[in-house]
Amino acid sequence: MPTIRRLTALEILDSRGRPTVQATCELSDGTVGTASVPSGASTGTAEALELRDGDPRRYGGLGCRKAVAHIHQELHQALSGRPFETQQELDQAMVALDGTPNKARLGANALLAVSLAFARATAHHRGVPLYEQFATILAQTDGGQAPASFRLPRPTINLFSGGKHAGGQVPIQDVLVVPARARTMDEALSTTYAVYQAAADLCRRKYQMRALTADEGGLAPPFPHAQAMLEDAVAAIRAAGFVPGQEVALAIDVASTHFFQDGRYHLGEEPHDSLAQIQVVRQWVEAYPIVSVEDALAEDDWEHWPELRRQLGERVLTLGDDLLCTNPARIQRAIELGAANALLLKVNQIGTLSEAAQAFVLARRAGWQVTVSARSGETEDNWLADLAVGWGGDQIKVGSITQSERLAKYNRLLAIEVAAGFPLVAWPG
């Protein structure tokens, strides 16, 4: 394996017009890999720290020049010329160099950019697709195993948005389309297109508004309440000619942490406690064709997550995002408590590929499903599609079927499907 010759970086803009980091890793044989990292809006408190400049005169303090400088200087000086036989060796060296529990000194955005750029450079050096390099990383991680055969993750695709991804017109964050019967990625996307266009037409007729979109491309009309999002989603599925719950199902991202205050959930007109919140979500699941529920409770409401999991049962994914933060320690706690049965995996929540792979392995060993997820602030880089294929993710959550930073991932999955002929993962059960 060649050594790292040079690490460079650039401050670029994400899909919300905010700065993020792009890194380039050049190996000693001349092989080059470049990668860009995303940034979240709906972030958990346990996430690794994105390093921002804090200068209010520039991008409102959100600049990333410090993170870029760390790649050009300290990370380049510490890593160049050293032999790294595996991704784990590189990532461990960066974590040790940072020396903080949440990557606060050098920045998780700097470390992840280098981690990804090294992985892509290594794939180029080996002459293999990036998803094969990701599979190798997984196989090298804590006894993990690469998928026996590659598959394409089933997409869960934003239809309607509220919360922090839109104007906060309703508290819950997203209602997503699950093309449950689609047999190929091409069919999944064409099915979703039909539902999305039906929903856009519904927005014009019912809310007298154009198809204005939220951070991840979801439609965001002025819903009067959360239940209206679900009712309109079912109406759009029917208008597109599909049977709700059979051909097309729904997933919801409740993002409860953002409306949890003083021990109460401020979801409707009257705030309520955790047990009442569980009952609200259970009623939704019983009334609508919902197959996945993300963050139905707040990130630190650990006491009640096991009851949520019990109430939702086996036919619905109890999906943890803010609860778990792709953090192995939090995932292990959730496994022991029986708090979830699915992980939303976001690599930038933990800060390096190797640590994210550890989180994936833990979830898999517990028998969990894994949804590989993008962030609200994305770039046109498509490495996430390869990651979901290489690690054998069950689902992929990228956003809607609009906006180039979302389509880059879907188009990469289409290209892999055509080139390799991999099948689409079936929905569990």
UniProtKB/TrEMBL annotation:
Give the residues annotated as active site.
216, 346
Q: What is its EC number?
A: 4.2.1.11
As cofactor, the record names: Mg(2+)
Enolase N-terminal domain residues: 4-134
**UniProt-listed InterPro entries:** Enolase (IPR000941), Enolase-like_C_sf (IPR036849), Enolase-like_N (IPR029017), Enolase_C (IPR020810), Enolase_CS (IPR020809), Enolase_N (IPR020811)
From the UniProt record, list the reaction(s) this protein catalyses: (2R)-2-phosphoglycerate = phosphoenolpyruvate + H2O
Q: Which GO terms describe its biological process?
A: glycolytic process
> GO CC: one term?
phosphopyruvate hydratase complex
| Binding-site positions, Mg(2+) | 253, 294, 321
CDD domains, from UniProt?
enolase
Membrane-crossing residue ranges in chain numbering: none
Q: Which Pfam families match?
A: Enolase_C, Enolase_N
Where is this protein found?
Answer: Cytoplasm; Secreted; Cell surface
Query: Know the name of this protein?
Result: Enolase
Q: Which organism is it from?
A: Litorilinea aerophila
